[in-house]
């Protein structure tokens, strides 16, 4: 194989990676705006908030987070905080965390939740948020 082919291939891979990064950043920004709008609407409508509790991997233990907001799924794994941020409420098991609580950082939401998961678990973020608002 020629050196020119390798260089061309390396440039193509770099361009592909840069494009994927740009699309991911744009998707995250769009999804963040949907989540922030949901929080504003939920607060304006007076939807009751709850303390958000994280769960250990494989459902082992419950952990206080100090956050308030709305669960998006019945399993309590995804939530939107009153701060307008998106949270995945799964943490590594920890005895200290069970006693003191845990810090959960906001994550970049995706426009499709559950993508790559089992059939029936994939839903557009916009639809999931609309369902949650409709449920009250």
Description of the molecule:
This protein has one domain. It is 44% helix and 22% strand. It is built from three helices and seven strands; from the N terminus they run H-E-E-E-E-E-H-E-E-H. Helix 1 runs parallel beside helix 3 (125-135). The protein is globular, with a radius of gyration of 19 Å.
Quick take:
The chain has 136 residues and is an alpha+beta fold. It has 3 helices and 7 strands.
Helix content: 40-55%
> Could you tell me the radius of gyration in angstroms?
19 Å
Strand order, largest beta sheet: 4-3-2-1-5
Shape: globular
- How would you characterize the largest beta sheet? 5 strands, mixed
Order of helices and strands: HEEEEEHEEH
Strand composition percent = 15-25%
- Give the integer mean of the pLDDT values: 89
What is the tally of helical segments? 3
**DSSP summary, beta strand count:** 7
Given helix and strand content, the structural type is: alpha+beta
Give me some keywords for this one:
single chain; 136 residues; five-stranded mixed β-sheet; 3 helices; 44% helix
Write the layout of secondary structure elements.
Elements: H1 3-45, E1 50-56, E2 62-71, E3 78-81, E4 86-88, E5 90-91, H2 95-100, E6 112-113, E7 123-124, H3 125-135
Parallel strand pairs: 1-5
Antiparallel strand pairs: 1-2, 2-3, 3-4, 6-7
